[in-house]
Amino acid sequence: MLLSLAAGWLREGHAHVFLLVAVGVFAALLIHHFGFLRVVDKNLSRILPMEGKRCVFSFMSWKSYLMVVLMMAMGMGLRHSPIPKPLLAVLYIGIGLALILSSIRYLRVLLQTRKS
Q1: Sign of CA dihedral 94, 7, 73, 55
Q2: Is the dihedral angle over the CA atoms 29, 34, 40, 44 positive or is it negative?
């Protein structure tokens, strides 16, 4: 959703679209590496030792769910703020792409545990 919104805002015709996308991708790599990977690894270290069936919601702690709600509220607030949409697109690309990159680690671990 974040990437879709960012693409829509940048499609409206901004002179520096490629620069804005490049900055967003660079921000995504930083957010992924220095922020979300730590959370993913923490969640995986909690989930993997669990025995038996796991609840579908157990991949995050309850504190993380609170953080998600806070981030969603902040995103909605920013979307309705007077900040220019092309600048918000950079932030949305950064966070959206970082979330996708981080989810790949969950998927990789899931596939590895299914094989063994």
Answers
A1: negative
A2: positive
* CB-based burial, 88-104: b 16+ in 10 Å, e otherwise: bbbbbbbbbbbbebbee
Domain that holds residue 102: 2-115
pLDDT in tens, 19-52: 999 999 999 999 999 988 988 888 888 888 877 7
Output the CA–CA distances (angstroms, integers) from residue 13 to 26, 80, 88, in the order listed: 21, 20, 15
Alpha helix locations (H) across the chain? 2-11, 17-31, 37-47, 62-79, 85-115
Number of domains composing the chain: 1
Q: What percent of the chain has pLDDT over 70?
A: 97
Cα Rg of the chain, angstroms: 17
Asked whether 6 and 89 are in contact (CB, 8 A), the reply is yes
The structure's pTM equals: 0.83
Count of beta carbons in the 10 Å neighbourhood of residue 44: 15
